[in-house]
Specification:
This protein is of the alpha+beta class and about 350 residues long. The chain is built from ten helices and seven strands.
């Protein structure tokens, strides 16, 4: 914000220069016409008077604009505290502006009269002829204050949105672990009941390796597809210990997109979703295909739905929410009579 204030200070100074030149443009024009008619500059009373008036008037506009603009943009905050009543604040602001305008006009008028002698009082001139400069200075100051408040509000809103997004992502990530843990425990329970003790122990060892990735990737919002595929190979190896040949997994032509990014454990959620919601038997094996289509990564399985499921039912919604928060993009879910497909945007 300090850089913003410095930037606005420079805007005030540049505006003061432009206003001073603009408000004295007619005087400059008259002076140049006078020089042309005189042939060449001679240091006489007429030229001296016009040059003195031109310089002091231009400088006066510049200084007056800066005094009023900086008072209203910066200095009044040193004078006014939030603890003061609103009416007192307004009174002090108006009084401060009037004092600057009147005292500066009188001082400048007195200064000009020391060097230039004309028929009218320069004090009167600077008191009443420069009100337009004063109005513009005050207007610009409050415009910059308003602009600063708008910018600050925008930055605050962006920070709040980022914090909200971060909190939602953390909540979604924390939701994955118990979901994954619940389903793998279900698999382990099945193996313990139906397989030999050694198979159960081997499953637990492989499960620990898979969990290491799950814990490590939980610190990241996105991982490369290559990292996710390596995890998927370990996870599929784990799952096939339960289902054997009843589960078929195919990853097709993915070499060109290994450096693309996806949310961690996105593929695992989809495969887990397919396993939890479909019948898997020797007669009805489950086939899961992983392939690309245009700019999307597709996970497809043949559809043979169970009547009941042990899943908590949060996988797809979790993934859709994470994609929406991270990228603003939506996943595409397609369902036909014999197949189910989810398309993930490739990042």
């Amino acid at each position: 914000m300090n850089k913003t204030h410095k930037y606005y200070h420079w805007i005030i100074i540049v505006s003061a220069v432009l206003i001073a030149i603009l408000f004295n443009w007619e005087n400059y024009s008259r002076f140049f016409v006078f020089l042309q008619n005189s042939g060449k500059v001679r240091f006489r009373t007429g030229v001296y008077t016009q040059v003195s008036f031109l310089i002091i008037n231009t400088a006066g506009h510049f200084v007056l604009f800066n005094l009023l603009a900086f008072f209203n943009y910066t200095w009044k905050n040193l004078l006014i505290r939030n603890s003061l009543a609103r009416g007192i604040q307004i009174f002090l602001i108006i009084t401060g502006n009037l004092l600057i305008y009147i005292l500066f006009g009188l001082l400048l008028g007195w200064t000009v009269n020391q060097y230039v002698v004309l028929q009218r009082s320069f004090a009167t001139y600077f008191l009443f002829a420069n009100y337009a400069v004063a109005i513009l200075a005050v207007a610009e100051a409050y415009f910059l204050i308003l602009l600063h408040k708008v910018k600050t509000a925008e930055v605050t809103q962006i920070k709040l949105q980022e914090e909200k997004k971060h909190a939602e992502l953390v909540a979604l990530k924390e939701q994955i672990s118990p979901h994954f843990f619940f389903n793998t425990l279900t698999s382990l329970s099945t193996i313990v009941r139906n397989e030999a003790k050694e198979v159960g122990l081997e499953f637990i060892q492989d499960l620990s390796r898979v969990y290491r990735y799950a814990l490590a990737s939980g610190q990241q919002n996105l991982v490369t597809l290559q990292e996710e595929l390596e995890f998927m190979n370990a996870y599929i190896f784990l799952v096939k210990k339960r289902f054997g040949e009843k589960l078929v997994y195919k990853a097709e032509n993915l070499d060109d997109i290994h450096t693309s990014k996806i949310p961690p454990m996105a593929l695992q959620l989809l495969i887990e979703n397919a396993i939890q919601h479909n019948i898997i038997t020797q007669a009805l094996p489950l086939t899961i295909r992983l392939y690309t289509e245009a700019d999307r990564l597709c996970v497809e399985n043949n559809l043979q739905p169970r009547e009941t499921s042990d899943s908590l039912g949060i996988g797809l919604q979790n993934l859709a929410n994470r994609y929406r928060l991270l990228t603003g993009k939506e996943i595409v879910i397609e369902k036909q009579e014999f197949w189910f497909r989810v398309k993930l945007p490739i990042l």
